[in-house]
Amino acid sequence: MEAVQNEKGQISIHTENIFPIIKKFLYSDHEIFLRELVSNAVDATQKLRQLSSFGEFGGELGDLKVTVSLDEEAKTITVSDNGIGMTADEVKKYINQIAFSGATDFLEKYKDKTDDKGQIIGHFGLGFYSAFMVASTVEIVSKSYRDNAEPVRWVCDGSTEFELTAAEKTERGTDIILHIAPDSEEFLNKGRLQSILDKYARFLPVSVEFDGKIVNNTAPIWTKSPAELTDEDYKTFYKELYPMSEEPLFWIHLNVDYPFNLTGILYFPRIKNELRFQREKIQLYSRQVFITDEVKDVVPDFLMMLHGVIDSPDIPLNVSRSFLQADSNVKKINGYITRKVADKLNELFNADRKAFEDKFDDISLFIKYGILSDEKFWEKAKNFVLLKNTDGVYTTLDEYREKVQANQTDKNETLVILYTSDRKQQHSYIESATRRGYDVLLMDNVIDSHFINALEQKLEKVHFQRVDADSIDKLIDKGLNNESVLSEVDQTKLKEVFEQVLDNKMLNVSVEAQPTDELPVTITMPEFMRRMKDMAALSGEQSFYGNLPATYNVVVNANHPLINKILTEADGDAQKLLVKQLYDLALLSQNMLTGAELTAFVRRTVEKL
Questions:
Q1: Is the pLDDT reported for residue 24 higher than 80?
Q2: Which residues take part in binding ATP (predicted)?
Q3: Burial 262-291 (b: 16+ CB within 10 A, else e)
Q4: Is it the case that residue 451 has pLDDT exceeding 70?
Q5: Pairing outcome for strands 415-420 and 462-466
Q6: Less Cβ around it within 10 Å: N or C end of the chain?
Q7: Strand order in 76-81's β-sheet?
């Protein structure tokens, strides 16, 4: 081979200095220099391995690895590999020919990868030149794998000028030596470099050595066949990813090669009853190189509650939001993941119903949110989503309809499903319903108000009523009227007395004939109003219904003996006191009596006793 000729020249760009451009527009992500350089070193190593497999390299591969070295005294960071290496001509071709023609073209090329603050959010593509985000001078010392190749040294101070000379290097491969700039000396810290490698190099396919030890797992379990793996392998890997988390409930191993390539493992954690997405929990890789933990658009929104890893070479490395939203492969991957998750849940339900029921409370939030947000998921989930009643019995939607249809169909042929959102607070109402043979569902999930709305739209002639939304006979109106022991005149008089004593325009007082075993006075909020307020509260946004003052119905039981006592009480003050006492009792049953009002009620009750 021809000896290396000493050479000085201009890098093929038109701007005077690429250094400030890179510095400015990649500043928020400047730690990625190490990922770029290590990834390039891995590529060089894998290329050599491929050439060997093709029979184009007959030498010894040896111990293929990438080494990251820190010299705090010299203020350098070195990334070394024993891969394919470069000749002088290859250095000139791959390093000097930068695909930028100045600041304007640079920004034009990367405009779709900038966020609102102008920061580049596409991480790859700059490759080697990301080194100038942290280095004032960069050296390359390289020796090609080719026979009799001469080692070469390239030096650049971040301007357009470079120097190319012969070098002393006996082993094939490349060393990238960064002379760290004064404003980037934070990277001359062993712990800082270790944390960057832990983030970006954790599962690279070639061994990466730092500080005398290998920092990566070159064969993570998502690269293996499920047939090779045990449950313990999956659990161990989960602990590796999330050392502080509880053991997952179950997992899905993704593996598809058409019409796109994708591998990965998604874990189902125990989901608490709160709608909080920890969007950093699913990690996106491309060929084992970490890209991002912002996987929105790649993963359906309702699956953001899952944990795990997705790896796809079909997701471009220079990820930007606009690309992810528009890319057809990303949309296909999104749909595939939804289908695989639904199929897995259906398989678990059919294989072991009891085990599925045992897990359901931990995954119900996830399933319900999926039903709300994805019609394709609903088509499968309607067969395995479960309803749980106050006795802890689980049923599917079809099973529940069959169970309660005979007793809970109203005069309009609509199936009325009763539920409670708080078993303790609404206990007296639940008891009233069960005395009539009605079944009551427990719907205390944070998104159940939305879920109920969705079911009413998806299921034919079904209406949900919370047990405290109306008097018992009106919750499921079968067209049967109880006879009142009071005349119409007495009922009108009674209504007037209550309205006068309570003196609250937000209370709608009515007198109804109810069974004598019901409370003398009940307080209810109409189902529609309460549900709208619940949904407004969950969204955290101002809304028409959320801002409306609460309106309650006060139902006076005309057939209760205590109500008749109000009418026969001659003393006006005693009559008012009895009305107030019964009203406060109704408030107490709804957990709505607090503060001074509660104290006064207790005092009156003690005095009466």
A1: no
A2: 36, 40, 81, 86, 101-102, 174, 321
A3: bbbbbbbbebeeeeeeeeebbbbbbbbbbb
A4: yes
A5: parallel
A6: C
A7: 7-10, 161-166, 152-156, 135-143, 173-180, 76-81, 65-71, 207-210, 213-214
pLDDT in tens, 219-259: 999 999 999 999 999 999 999 998 888 899 999 999 888 77
* CATH match for 488-608 among 1.20.120.790, 3.30.300.30, 3.40.50.300, 1.25.10.10: 1.20.120.790
Residue 101 is assigned to a ligand binding site: yes
Tallying the residues shown for the chain, one arrives at 609
**Which of 269-273, 528-532, 544-548 is least confident?**
544-548
Please indicate if the annotation marks 174 as binding a ligand: yes
Over the stretch 534-544, which tens digit does the pLDDT of each residue have?
A: 777 666 555 55
* Chain centroid to CA 61: 43
Burial call 313-332: b when 16+ CB within 10 Å, e when fewer: eebbebbbbebbeebebbee
Highest mean pLDDT among 50-54, 65-69, 200-204, 305-309: 65-69
Q: Is the dihedral of CA 208, 209, 211, 212 positive or negative?
A: positive
- Third-level CATH fold of 385-475: Rossmann fold (3.40.50)
* Contact present, 592 and 522 (Cβ < 8 Å): no
Three-point CA angle 214, 217, 222, nearest 5°: 175
Average pLDDT of the segment spanning 87-104: 66
**Alpha carbon separation from 278 to 245, 313, 499 (Å, rounded):** 13, 25, 50
In the chain, how long is the greatest CA-to-CA distance? Answer: 121
Directed axis angle between helix 572-589 and helix 595-608, to 10°?
Answer: 120
Kind and range of the H or E run holding 86: none
pLDDT above 60 for 506: yes
Q: What is the full DSSP assignment across 377-426?
A: HHHHHTTT-EEEBTT--EEEHHHHHHHHTTTSB-TTSPEEEEEES-TTTT
> Do 385-475 and 488-608 agree at the fold level?
no
| Per-range mean pLDDT, top range of 325-334, 370-379, 583-592 | 370-379
Output the pLDDT for position 313. 82
Determine whether the annotation assigns residue 428 to a binding site: no
Q: Is 395 annotated as a binding residue?
A: no
Number of helices and strands in the chain (H, E): 20, 22
Measure the CA angle with vertex 128, ends 122 and 131; round to 5°.
Answer: 90
The predicted structure's pLDDT at residue 121:
32
Q: How far apart are CA 520 and CA 559, in angstroms?
A: 8
Average pLDDT over residues 529-550: 63
Is 214 within 8 Å of 255 (Cβ atoms)? no
pLDDT of 605 higher than 80: yes
CATH code of domain 221-353: 3.30.230.80
Is 185 among the annotated ligand-binding positions? no
Whole-number Å distance between alpha carbons of 167 and 164: 9
Q: Which of 16-20, 220-224, 346-350, 404-408 has the lowest mean pLDDT?
A: 16-20
Q: Is 86 annotated as a binding residue?
A: yes
559 marked as part of a ligand binding site: no
CATH superfamily to which 7-214 belongs: Histidine kinase-like ATPase, C-terminal domain (3.30.565.10)
Residue boundaries of the structural domains of the chain: 7-214, 221-353, 385-475, 488-608
133 among the known binding-site residues?
Answer: no
Rounded CA-CA distance 471/554 in Å is 10
